[in-house]
């Protein structure tokens, strides 16, 4: 019961997904099977495609938590959303870097964001479209939204790849590994080895059978694998979609559940760790209000230098795009 005449307040758990390509579809599917949302609205300019995806998802409704699924090529389907996930844009081709995609996808974000927020003024808008840092910066600049209401999926997936590789090498469950990637979601990202903990042991001191597992060579190899993971997957199957679907569903849950969970999402930085005027990923508190406080994570000298170089790379791209 609440104090509004004894009627319970019904929480808005409507999530809209913009763009029904392989990533948008994977996000909708992950949200459905994890029970992340109370309602899913799918939008795409391709009407037969979006209708087909809605039918396909609805046909499995017996086997998942209850969720109302709608879809259309009319943006009105997104009206009154709590969270809007944007995946719309040109997709990365084999051999193409995320930053090469920038111009086309920035233009799409600048057009879409104001239209979406006009229909759902209180929504939090989460960008997954690559290059996510530059696209998020452009989208945030295109509207006068509350701070943290427009942010990007950032390095949440990269950090999951990072933890998986560390866990594999240590022969432990991934839940026992804590570690994050910061900076650009792309080639200049930084693995924060100085704060990695494996079962509570700092990575640099973690031994198995008396042998140090994470020496400099192992660290370099794992960091490089994280950066190149997407290229390998795109080469093999055309797109990365399943893990980004799961990691995005996890961000959606932190928003709708008002979890105050620390995730390395991408926001327009205003001075944390010496970075400002650019959107990139740092550990950030995610709650119902969107992306909030950015934590000042301790950085080694090399990590700080790497982060500032990553910010510089993104600054350069923003300038060439006139942002």
Describe the structure.
The protein is α/β, with parallel strands linked by helices and 323 residues long. It folds into 2 domains: 14-152, 3-Layer(aba) Sandwich (Rossmann fold); 156-320, L-2-Hydroxyisocaproate Dehydrogenase, Chain A, domain 2. Helices cover 39% and strands 20% of the residues. The chain has 8 helices and 18 strands. The protein has helices at residues 22-34, 47-58, 102-119, 132-141, 156-170, 216-237, 242-256, 301-320; strands spanning 14-18, 39-43, 68-72, 83-86, 124-127, 150-152, 177-178, 181-182, 190-191, 197-198, 201-202, 207-208, 211-212, 261-263, 266-270, 276-281, 284-287, 290-294. Strands 3-2-1-4-5-6 form a 6-stranded parallel β-sheet, sandwiched between helices. It has a 3-stranded antiparallel β-sheet with strand order 7-10-11, covered by helices on one side. Helix 3 (102-119) crosses helix 4. The chain is globular and about 60 Å long. The model has no long low-confidence stretch (mean pLDDT 94).
């Amino acid at each position: 019961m609440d104090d509004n005449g004894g009627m319970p307040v019904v929480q808005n758990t409507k999530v809209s997904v913009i763009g029904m390509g392989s990533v948008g579809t994977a996000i909708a599917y992950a949200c459905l099977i994890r029970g992340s949302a109370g309602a899913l609205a799918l939008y795409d300019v391709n009407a037969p495609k979006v209708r087909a995806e809605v039918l396909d998802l609805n046909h499995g409704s017996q086997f998942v938590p209850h969720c109302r699924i709608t879809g259309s090529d009319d943006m009105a389907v997104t009206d009154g959303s709590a969270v809007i996930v944007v995946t719309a844009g040109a997709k990365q081709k084999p051999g193409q870097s995320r930053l090469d995609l920038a111009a086309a996808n920035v233009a799409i974000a600048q057009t879409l964001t104001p239209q979406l927020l006009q229909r759902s003024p209180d929504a939090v808008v989460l960008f997954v479209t690559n290059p996510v840092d530059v696209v998020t910066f452009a989208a945030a600049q295109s509207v006068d939204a509350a701070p943290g209401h427009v942010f990007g999926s950032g390095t949440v997936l990269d950090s999951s790849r990072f933890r998986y590789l560390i866990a594999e090498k240590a022969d432990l469950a991934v839940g026992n590994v804590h570690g994050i990637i910061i900076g650009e979601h792309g080639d200049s990202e930084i693995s924060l080895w100085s704060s990695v903990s494996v079962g509570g042991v700092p990575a640099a001191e973690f031994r198995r059978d008396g042998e140090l597992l994470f020496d400099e060579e192992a660290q370099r190899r794992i960091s490089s694998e994280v950066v190149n993971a997407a290229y390998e997957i795109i080469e093999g199957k055309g797109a990365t979609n399943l893990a980004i679907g799961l990691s995005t569903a996890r961000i959606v849950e932190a928003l709708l559940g008002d979890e105050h969970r620390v995730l390395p999402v991408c926001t327009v930085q205003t001075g944390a760790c010496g970075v400002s005027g650019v959107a990139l990923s740092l550990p950030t508190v995610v709650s119902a209000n969107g992306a909030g406080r950015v934590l000042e994570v301790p950085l080694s000298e090399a990590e700080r230098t790497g982060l500032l170089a990553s910010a510089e790379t993104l600054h350069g791209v923003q300038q060439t795009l006139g942002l």
